[in-house]
Each structure stands twice: as structure tokens, then as C-alpha cells.
Specification:
heterotrimer, A alpha/beta (277), B alpha/beta (256), C mainly alpha (309), A: alpha/beta, Rossmann fold, 35% helix, C: 309 residues, mainly alpha, MetI-like fold, 12 helices, 71% helix, 0% strand, flat, P-loop_NTPase (chain B)
Chain lengths: 277, 256, 309
């Protein structure tokens, strides 16, 4: 089957004071209708990879790739206008903190309707019905009440659910989630992930899950890509994580404290310069 | 033996909202004690109340058996008790060099031989002399947190309050900082009170821990009880399960 | 790490830009140098700086630069002469060379500007930071006093003070200083409020530092950049207020060559002998522009958000 997303040799370059800096250095990946995780520490280029796919790279940076196909659309040659119509309708992105990604002066319901109306010509009443249905789908108990609330009036978990609702209302095929639950409490985190998981499965979407949390990604995704210094160092099935080959992945796994494992001191990661080559 | 830190029936109110309600905790000298909970559980508020940064409305706090007066703390208290903050980007003054950050507590408490003390403090946290005159923006998150630890230790306290000291750091850096903290505790026979949302981190670092929720202590238990699944409160169980990562509820197949 | 000292001698630039300074002085100089580099990126700001350096030099060497005396003119032959090779800017109604008067006037302008900055900025800074850090009733009292001062138009209030204190350049300076601190207090307070709950301030509190120490050593340095920028941008306004007072006859008294007073005396012949008012007017314009350009440049260079780039 043809993959939903097919990327070869993606590079994102930022101009700097002393020469340019490559944040992403030759990332290749294929994504079908599955859950793919990208794990890495800060500065590994994982977020810039997601942003480049969405076309949200900051204007001063340049994106190059040998191939960047989404379904049958070549993202490299697509016009700004084409990409805009793709965003939201066919691919969507959830960011870390709903506080910053929702418009503070617009009610949650209004924002969901807005997203819907940008991509489809629907009547007001229908848009409202679909927005309410979407809020229900993300397990918000009183969708009618939340519909009329402003983002600051809801909790972090509720805000992130609203965000998911807004992103999925137009029925995208690809969802990129950049640290979608890092700002949430652990128990809320799992609830939100549960909702996300069910929606992705029911709608047959492809999910690109970007996170620093190896444990979370490996339990949530089917496959995991590990990034270090702008490159993919390892790609493996989540179930095989314990048998990771690359010393970076192993080191990352080992450095996590675990309940019931008495390791003092914790093994620390010995960063080898050749990993970044 | 008197406890190093004894909190009895403590209450903290912010504008009528009870952030802490009737909380009692006792930490023995040399012990490492953890406070686990989610946001709004009051775990950080408890730490801040001990440090004198939160308004206490009820109950008492004692250090080494001496009860603290409400409100102002005296200088002797701050030689005894120090704190490391969560955000290494926010806990260092942006316009002061590392040198200045370490000199300030020494100057306030009238220490002599500041030159040697600063150099030694930096060495203890694994930063060489080369870092001494840098500004915080020239350091990585892990290095900043090391400076924050050095700043807390430079006045030779006996109790260190740790407010999520590694939650803003990458996993591999977290391991380094946790090891450093453990090492200094061993070397200086410190008493730790550590706040974290991460059950695994607390169980690694602490001998005993209190689970907090909504301004109350739900359960106090030894760290070994977590490994043996010997906890009673439903909330503890929930946190414990959450710490193991995501669990997919399988509908079609029988659960494994 | 130990090989820093054994390295080959560094160039000045490398020494200043090093990532690991070896002493307090080097760290401070390095920081100043990076700020200077940032400042230099703004060409207009450099022009502003050049204008002000020129002003300083003019004031310092007025005796040498001025071709004639600023006070004594030739009433018989030289009244109201148009600009010429002999008198570049022409002469005024007293037969005095205007160029010389403008050159000497730079001293008065500098005097006013520096004195006002020295008096008003620290007062505003202290009141603002104390008010912001202390909060409660101290904040309320100090801010209501500030509001009272802010409620009056600056020039009107200055006029009232000069009327009470008596006309003269010193009293004009005092009046301007008294009326210009409230905005600084407001800025300092607003800045303090954003810092006071930061962890690094809590960290100093946990060291047992006294409130005064925290305000003086930890909060004030943070408020300085925005205050410096604001003062620089206000300089133009201060010069204009001083000129305004001079124009109204309440500032510098004749025969002092104060630019505002010079315009006032030139007003009578503005249609026929335009140069009498034009020269000091142009001087005010150029110097005000210089301060504004410099202030803009400083805002970019000192912005703490730029830190770490």
C-alpha cells in the first residue's frame, strides 16, 4: 500500500550569526495509517521535522528534501495557497500547550466552527452540530456548556481536548502531535491520549507523535524513530525497544529511573561525538 | 530523636482557596523524603510554606524541634534550609554571572574565604573554573541546575528542599542531576525533601514518600512499598499505573 | 580547562568574546562589548551617538570654537545681519554672533539634560522599585503620589514650580526634574512586578537577603535598561520643556544663550530676520533627534530578551 506520507532526505536549515545551522539533517520516513513516534531530546530536530511537514517552518529557515509526498501531493512544489488548504483539512497539528494555541478572545465553539467553515461550505446550524458532536467525541461531558466557554475558563486537559476537537473536525488524514500532553498532569495525560488513540484508530488516520518521553511514545505508538542532533539514529517497532541497537537509544532508556530497580547511581548517557556525524 | 522537619496540621490559603489543608509530615535527620502529586495537589505549596514563601494560615512547622514563627524567617534558618527550584531558566538572575550568584549568599551570611568556597562549590557540582564568570544564558539547562544546586549548598545547609529539580530537563541530563544530588547528600549527610510529579524519580531518590491530592496527604509510604505494590489508596494506584506509560484498552482481543 | 592560560596570546576581540572569561572584569567587559556590537548593527543609532558626541565636544571646546563672544555684540554696526562669511548664522538684535551663542548654548542644554537625568531617573527608579517590590499600602501611597504628579501636564506643573521658586536656569532644571520622575517610577514599578515573583528573586529571599538588598542589588539592575532607554528618549522632551520655559521667560534669563530663550527673542523678527530663531531651533531639532536615535538603538541593544542570542 502506498504510504500516506513519504519523505526522503529532509533538511531544515536556519541562518545563524556564524554560518547556517542545520536543525534537521537528512530525515527520511514513511508513514502509513499508523502511529509513528519521533523521540529525541531538546535540539534533536524532532519538532522542526513536524513543522516542516506542516509547512510551518519559520520564514528565515529553508526546507529542502529529495522527496516530500503527502498522498499524491508534492509538498515541495505545492504553493503557499495549496498548503494552506491542506492544513486543517487533510493534515492537522496539535501543539504542546493549549493555552498558547487557542485564541483567547474567541469561544471554543466558535473556533471549531471557524476551522470547519474555512475548509467546507457548511451552514451555521450544521457547523454547530458537527462542532458539538466533535466535542462529544473528545469526551467532554457537557459539550453545550464548553462550546460557549473561552479557553481560559477551562482546565489544561479540557483545553487540549478542545484543541484535538478543533484539529480533527475537518477530518484530516494525517495528524501531527507535537508533545500534545507534556503540559498535562500524568493522569490527565493518559485520558487525553486514550481519546486521541481511539479517534485515530476509528478514523483511520496517520499519526506522527513527537515527544521527548520515550516511555510514553513506546507504549503509545506502533513504531518509534529516535532522533539525535538532527538525524534519525534508530527506527524500530515499539515492542522491540528493549532490544535497541544504537548506544544512544540504549543510554536514553537506561538513564530513566524505574520503580523497583535499585540502580545507584543511574547510568548516564555518554555522548559520543560520532553520533552527531 | 527529633525530626529534622516536622510539619503539623499545616494549612495554607490563597485568597480563600485552601491550597493546603491539615497536612502533617515528619522527615527524620538525614532522610530523603518525597512529595508526589499532580498540579494543584499542594506539593509545591508545602515546600514553599516551609521556606517561608507561602502564607501559613494554620498549624506549625518545626526544624530540629524548634518551632518556626509564622511569617518572617531569620537568617539562621536560611543557613539551615535551602531550596532548588524547578525551572533552571528562571531561578538564576539573568544579569549576574555564576560567580555573583554564588558570592551573594556568602556575602549575606558573612562567610570568609569566599574565593575558595566558590571554586570548591563549582567543583562539587561538576562545573570547572571555566564556568565561574559566565552568564546564565551561556549555560545549558543541566549546567544551570548544577549552578542552582551549588548556590543552595554553598551556605552549608543541612536541609535541602528540591522543587521538581529535573522536570524541565532532558532524560539523560535528569540522570546526571539526580546522581549529583544523591552524591552530595551522601557526602554532606543532607536531609532532602523532594517534590516531583514523577513517581519513578521519587522512588529512585527517596526513602519515604507522601502522595498528595487536593491539598491533602493521601498516603505516606516507604519507597520499597511501590515496588512491592503495597499501597492502599486508589489515587496511588492510579499514579502508579500512569507512571508505566500508556495502556491501550483492547476491545477486540482478550486483554493480555 | 586548565589550558586557557597557556594558550597563545589572544587578540582583544577573542579575549572579549570568550565563552569562559577568567575574571569578573573580563566577564563584564565581554558583556559590554557584545552590547556594543548589537548597538553598532543599528546605523541610525550610531548617527545619534555621533550627534551627541559632537554636542559634548562643542560644549567642552566652546571657548575655542566660538568665533565671537556670546554676550557682547556690536550694537552699532552688527544688528540683525543675515548669515554671511563673517557671521555664519547671522547676528541677533543685540548684534551678537548667533553661531557663538548656539555653541555656548550647548553647555546650558547639556547642563539641563544631565542634571534632570541625575535627579529624576534615580528618584523614579527608587520609588518605582520599592513600590513594586513592597506592595500593599506602601505601593498604594507611593503610586497615588505619582498619580497626582502625572495628572498635571508637565509644562504647566513646571511653570507652577518655577513661579514658586523664581525664574532662572537652576530652578527650571529643578522644576523639570520634579515633574519628570513619575513616568520613570511607573516603568520601574511595572518592571519590578514582572520580576518580583521570579524564582531568582525567591532564591535571593531564601538566602536571607533583606528587602533593601534585594531591591538595590537584584531588582534595580533589571530595571536599568528600560529606564536608560526611556530617559534617553525623554531627553528630547526635556530639552523642549527647558526651551519652552526659556521661551516663556521663566527659564534661563538674558543674556544667557539658552536655545529656547534665543528663539523667544527671535520671535519678534521671525518674518524678516528668520535666522535669529532658525539657528537655535535647528540646534534643538538636531540634538533632540540625536537623543531619539540613540534611545532607539539602546532599546534594541539593551533589551534583555535579546540576551543569549
Amino acid at each position: 500500500m502506498k504510504p500516506l506520507l513519504d519523505i526522503e532526505d529532509l533538511r531544515v536549515t536556519f541562518p545563524g550569526r556564524s554560518g547556517s545551522i542545520q536543525a534537521v539533517r537528512g530525515v527520511s520516513l514513511k508513514l502509513g495509517r499508523e502511529r509513528l513516534g519521533i523521540v529525541g531530546e531538546s535540539g534533536s530536530g524532532k519538532s522542526q521535522t513536524g513543522r516542516a511537514i506542516m509547512g510551518l517552518t519559520p520564514p528565515q529557515a529553508t526546507v529542502t528534501a529529495k522527496k516530500m509526498m503527502f498522498n499524491d501531493i508534492d509538498l515541495l512544489t505545492a504553493s503557499a495557497r495549496q498548503r494552506r488548504s491542506l492544513r486543517g483539512r487533510q493534515m492537522a497539528m496539535i501543539l504542546q500547550d493549549p493555552k498558547y494555541s487557542l485564541n483567547p478572545v474567541m469561544t471554543i465553539g466558535r473556533q471549531i466552527i471557524e476551522t470547519l467553515q474555512t475548509h467546507e461550505s457548511v451552514s451555521r446550524a450544521e457547523a454547530r452540530d458537527r462542532a458539538l458532536a466533535m466535542l462529544e467525541a473528545v469526551q467532554i461531558r457537557e459539550p453545550k456548556r464548553v462550546f460557549d466557554l473561552h479557553p481560559h475558563e477551562v482546565s489544561g486537559g479540557m483545553g487540549q481536548r478542545a484543541m484535538i476537537a478543533m484539529m480533527l473536525v475537518a477530518g484530516p488524514e494525517l495528524l501531527i502531535a507535537d508533545e500534545p500532553t507534556s503540559a498535562l498532569d500524568v493522569t490527565v495525560q493518559l485520558e487525553v491520549l486514550g481519546i486521541l488513540d481511539r479517534l485515530v484508530a476509528d478514523r483511520g488516520m496517520g499519526l506522527l507523535f513527537i515527544s521527548h518521553d520515550l516511555r510514553l511514545v513506546s507504549t503509545f505508538c506502533d513504531r518509534v524513530i529516535v532522533m539525535y542532533a538532527g538525524r534519525i539514529v534508530e527506527e524500530l517497532a515499539s515492542a522491540d525497544l528493549a532490544n535497541a541497537q544504537h548506544p544512544y537509544t540504549q543510554g536514553l532508556l537506561n538513564s530513566l529511573p524505574r520503580i523497583g530497580h535499585d540502580r545507584h547511581p543511574l547510568p548516564v548517557l555518554d555522548r559520543k561525538p560520532e553520533w552527531a556525524l | 530523636m527529633t525530626a529534622a522537619l516536622e510539619v503539623r496540621k499545616l494549612g495554607v490559603e490563597f485568597n480563600g482557596h485552601k491550597a493546603l489543608d491539615d497536612v502533617s509530615v515528619s522527615v527524620a535527620r538525614g532522610e530523603s523524603f518525597g512529595l508526589v502529586g499532580e498540579s494543584g495537589s499542594g506539593k509545591s505549596t508545602l515546600l514553599r510554606a516551609v521556606a517561608g514563601l507561602a502564607p501559613v494560615s494554620a498549624g506549625t512547622i518545626s526544624i530540629d524541634g524548634r518551632e518556626l514563627r509564622r511569617g518572617k524567617r531569620n537568617r539562621a534558618f536560611y543557613r539551615e534550609v535551602q531550596m532548588v527550584f524547578q525551572d533552571p531558566y528562571g531561578s538564576l538572575h539573568p544579569r549576574q554571572t555564576i560567580d555573583r550568584a554564588l558570592l551573594e549568599p556568602l556575602a549575606i551570611h558573612g562567610f570568609d574565604n569566599t574565593e575558595n568556597r566558590i571554586v570548591r562549590a563549582l567543583e562539587e557540582v561538576g562545573l570547572g573554573k571555566g564556568f565561574r564568570f559566565r552568564y546564565p544564558h551561556q549555560l545549558s539547562g543541566g549546567q544551570r541546575q548544577r549552578v542552582a544546586i551549588a548556590r543552595a549548598l554553598v551556605v552549608e545547609p543541612s536541609i535541602v528542599l528540591l522543587d521538581e529539580p529535573t522536570s524541565a530537563l532532558d532524560a539523560s541530563v535528569q540522570a546526571e542531576i539526580l546522581n549529583l544530588l544523591e552524591q552530595t547528600r551522601k557526602d554532606r549527610k543532607l536531609t532532602f525533601v523532594m517534590v516531583s510529579h514523577d513517581l519513578a524519580v521519587v522512588s529512585h531518590m527517596c526513602e519515604r514518600l507522601a502522595i498528595m491530592q487536593g491539598g491533602h496527604v493521601v498516603e505516606t509510604l516507604p519507597a520499597s512499598a511501590l515496588a512491592d505494590h503495597k499501597f492502599e489508596a486508589a489515587y496511588t494506584k492510579k499514579l502508579f499505573e500512569a507512571s508505566e506509560g500508556f495502556q491501550r484498552k483492547v476491545h477486540t482481543e482478550a486483554p493480555a | 580547562m586548565s589550558d586557557i592560560s597557556s594558550q597563545a596570546p589572544l587578540s582583544w576581540r577573542e579575549w572579549l568574546m570568550t565563552e569562559r572569561p577568567g575574571s569578573r572584569t573580563q566577564a563584564r567587559l565581554g558583556r559590554t562589548y557584545t552590547t556594543w556590537l548589537r548597538f553598532c548593527e543599528n546605523k541610525l543609532a550610531l548617527i545619534g551617538l555621533a550627534i551627541l558626541i559632537l554636542l559634548l565636544l562643542t560644549a567642552a571646546f566652546a571657548d575655542v570654537l566660538a568665533p565671537y563672544s556670546p554676550y557682547i555684540g556690536n550694537l552699532k554696526d552688527d544688528r540683525l545681519l543675515a548669515p554671511s562669511a563673517l557671521h555664519w548664522f547671522g547676528t541677533d538684535d543685540q548684534g551678537r554672533d548667533i553661531l557663538s551663542r548656539v555653541i555656548y548654548g550647548s553647555r546650558l542644554t547639556l547642563f539641563v539634560v544631565i542634571l534632570v537625568a541625575i535627579i529624576a531617573a534615580p528618584v523614579g527608579l527608587l520609588i518605582g522599585t520599592v513600590s513594586g517590590y513592597a506592595g500593599g499600602w506602601i505601593d498604594a501611597v507611593l503610586m497615588r503620589i505619582t498619580d497626582i504628579f502625572l495628572a498635571f501636564p508637565k509644562l504647566v506643573l513646571a511653570l507652577a514650580f518655577v513661579a514658586a521658586l523664581g525664574p532662572g536656569i537652576e530652578n527650571a532644571v529643578l522644576a523639570i526634574a520634579i515633574t519628570s520622575w513619575p513616568p520613570y517610577a511607573r516603568i520601574a514599578r511595572a518592571e519590578t512586578l514582572t520580576f518580583r515573583n521570579a524564582d531568582y528573586i525567591a532564591a535571593v529571599q531564601l538566602m536571607g537577603a533583606s528587602p533593601m538588598r534585594i531591591v538595590l542589588r537584584h531588582i534595580m539592575p533589571l530595571c536599568m535598561p528600560s529606564l536608560i532607554v526611556r530617559v534617553t528618549l525623554d531627553m528630547a522632551g526635556i530639552i523642549l520643556t527647558a526651551a519652552g520655559l526659556g521661551f516663556l521667560g521663566l527659564g534661563a534669563q538674558p543674556p544667557l544663550p539658552e536655545w529656547g530663550a534665543m528663539i523667544a527673542s527671535g520671535r519678534r523678527f521671525i518674518l524678516d530676520q528668520w535666522w535669529v530663531a532658525a539657528a537655535p531651533g535647528a540646534a534643538i531639532l538636531v540634538v533632540s533627534l540625536g537623543f531619539n536615535l540613540l534611545g532607539d538603538g539602546l532599546r534594541d541593544a539593551l533589551d534583555p530578551k535579546e540576551e543569549g542570542r
